[in-house]
Amino acid sequence: MTKETLWTVAITATFFFCLCFSTLKAETPSCHGAYDLYFVLDRSGSVSTDWDQIYDFVKNLTERFVSPNMRVSFIVFSSKAEIVLKLTGDRAKINEGLKYLNAVKPAGETYMHEGIKQATAQMKEQLKKSSSIIVALTDGKLEPYIHKLTKDEADEARTFGARVYCVGVKDFDEEQLADVADTREQVFPVKGGFQALKGIVNSILKQSCTEILTVEPSSVCVNQSFDIVLRGNGFTLGRQTEGVVCSFIVDGATNKVKPSKVKNDYVLCPAPVLYSVGQQMEVLISLNSGTSYISSTFTITASTCSDGTVVAIVFLVLFALLALALMWWFWPLCCTIVIKDPPPQRPPPPPPVRWGEKGSTEEGARLEKAKNAVVSIQEETEEPMIKKSPTSPHTYHQSESKWYTPIRGRLQALWALLRRQYDRVSLMRPTTADKGLQHQR
């Protein structure tokens, strides 16, 4: 093979590797719900050759629960039960517990009730009611008496809010596991042997994961009622939708409310009124009538709100002022007609000269006749002066001041100012004569 061919093969292989990796990553589901996850695992002698597959199943499922508030416990059972990892949310301790789990040596009988009893004992020790999931795995049939004890222990765990899921491999009895689990849908048969355990991880995750992804709205108005929408997955995974309860924690007080609508991907709940700015409310949800709750990291904060009337009035006033300013600015430019002066007219022709006698004009003849004229002036007679009677000085009566006189004076001054402005603008308007002159041009 040439060098160019090797480069082509290498680039193609890298491309397909990246494509497969991205596709695998995109198809890997996870759960963001905060749970107490109890693995109750059969370590009887019948699984001695398949313990590695059980370990891989537990490790893979644990890694799919990605909430930082998730806690895990590993319990193994045979003739008696043993807690390999006590309930913890510390990731370092969880990884250490997986190492101990991998080193377990299976032997003994199949006493599943002993393992569920250890899970219930840890639930009783918890101060805060959290949602718990028990995943019980076995590979064989239970003796009738052991089956009854196991069912009773599962019912006891459910009183503390646990949801019980069962995984059966090889020679299990599906009817027995259906009695132990909450519902038949929560039984996962693996008929292909322990090698097929990896194939049911996604199914278990889909059936067990209830998660709150968003809470709407995140901010509300004080002193106003409102509804919230919790969006996520698995809200109908409880034994019945009537058990779904919304819980709101405000200033340490808990308010439980029945939702108005429950769907698999969202829940609609009426929320309590918040009365002060900055007040916060934590949102929880329960699938078992408030026995345990699925917590979330979402809170709702109260803030001041306006109905928009004041803002609308302010915008209207600003718009009116802007319109007046634009009219004042553009009126001379758009509505004033400039009238040019007409061209100067030609001067009239001089009057014709009229000739009289002896070669002179008629005006000259009139002046010649007036040379020896005698002018007589009549003497003016003096008229006697008539004395006027002295007039009495005018008396001014000062008007009496009223309470509204200052107000009337200010209103008159304001009216005079508006009148002058109106007259100024009206002078700029084109008159009918101006429009007619413009039309003639």
From TrEMBL:
Organism: Sinocyclocheilus rhinocerous
Signal peptide residue numbers: 1-26
Biased segments, Polar residues type: 389-398
Alphabetical UniProt keywords: Disulfide bond, Glycoprotein, Membrane, Metal-binding, Phosphoprotein, Receptor, Signal, Transmembrane, Transmembrane helix
Main location per the UniProt record: membrane
Record membrane topology: Single-pass type I membrane protein
Binding residues annotated for a divalent metal cation, in chain numbering: 44, 46, 110
Region annotated Disordered, chain positions: 345-398
Matching Gene3D superfamilies: von Willebrand factor, type A domain (3.40.50.410)
Protein name (record): Anthrax toxin receptor
Source taxon at top rank: Eukaryota
Disulfide bonds: 31-209
Similarity-based family: Belongs to the ATR family.
Entry-linked SMART domains: VWA (SM00327)
GO cellular component: cell surface; plasma membrane
Oxidoreductase is among the record's keywords: no
